[in-house]
Amino acid sequence: EETKLHNFIGGQFVAPKNGKYLDNFNPSTGKVYGQLPDSSSEDMAEAIASAKANFKKWSKTPTAERSRILNKIADLVEERLEEFAQAESRDQGKPITTARTVDIPRVVSNFRFFAGAVLHHEERSTTMDDQAVNYTVRQPVGVAGLISPWNLPLYLLTWKIAPALAVGCTVVCKPSEFTPATAHMLCSVLNQAGLPAGVCNMVFGLGSSVGRALVQHPDVPLISFTGGTATAEFIIKDSAPQYKKLYLELGGKNPNIIFDDADLDECVPTTVRSSFSNQGEICLCGSRIFVHEKIYEKFLERFVEATKKLIVGDPKDPKTTMGALVSKIHLEKVMSYVTMAKEEGRRILHGGDAPHVPDELREGYWLNPTIVADVPFDCKFQQEEIFGPVVGVTKFSTEEEVIEMANSVKYGLAASLWTSDVKRAHRVSREIESGTVWVNCWMMRDLRMPFGGVKHSGVGRASGEASIDFYTEQKTICIKL
Hints:
Structural class: alpha/beta
Distance between the termini: 70 Å
Strand content: 15-25%
Radius of gyration: 23 Å
Number of helices: 16
Mean pLDDT: 98
Shape: globular
């Protein structure tokens, strides 16, 4: 049964003004299962006007009341966790188990975390001998434009919505056109939780039309974007004339560095996860694996063996550990790198082909987890973001050499390194050019800690303090004594 989604503006579900819709595909079947608005700049302008009209009242709402509403949203999502998880799995292609245990629980955590953080935030005060007292206050920036990606749809959208609402901003969201389902479901939760109409608005459609309209609009002083580096370039250019605050969380080509003293019993299964979780469609996945020459073949043997145990197939099956890629166009992009590796004569140890799936899933966007060995660190395959279940493995000899290899890309989002040497762990972590370094682990996220990228992986940081800073302006008040 096909579902038709609507925009959410001023607390109401409304059809796009132009009456146009886009098809929404189920990645595991390749078939259309619903429609979403193909909205225009007129729809976006209406949503922004609604957010602007409701900003003053929401920004003056007591912090404790905003916190209470955020906690209520968290409770309601948690009550419907299974429903949200099934929708996310169907819409994105990820295994239902991933949606149940990672995506939707994190949505709940996002709201609860900022509901608490905003109550415990402290500001600064200084005295100038007996001359004056200075103190700072924070005021919400205004209407926040939030643009979210298709890989962790509601997880990443609510990582923006929660802090923005907590500090008193109103928001206009533009979710990815590939994965609109759970964002649409959230809207009814917002109403049920008692969020005032117009405080949070959703406009569905293409980035080139509604995304751009949001970025260029003079009544939106702030944009938070998670997505591709090429799109971010347009956002920077389009927002430049109005000097908007920007948070950009972009691509990654993350190194996973494995020294010869690594504990392979922990390293191998974690590397399988960091390579192929969510079909490799996580900006934090470790797609470049650097292994010390002493353990190179041993690691490869164990890594391939562990990867073969992954179950690629129907996302609805709880046993499935890897689902379908998000879209046909994305599968084609990922496959182009696999084809390139084959044409260059690389050693493909596993994958590079589609799995056997039931007839009803044959038209889906499938690729087996793919391991390519002996890849030069400076070739296109190891330099460009692939964003799929494809990893390249490279041998290294010395610490200095692997640091140079790891830092050779234009990206710098995250890195992992595996070693039993504590001094080396600290030393190498400092040398790696990335926003986050995980030592002997992957994807352990403390929401209190700043998150973001360096180089082409982004601008700005998000976390408890950093997000409160981003969605507010800090003002210094000086009182003469």
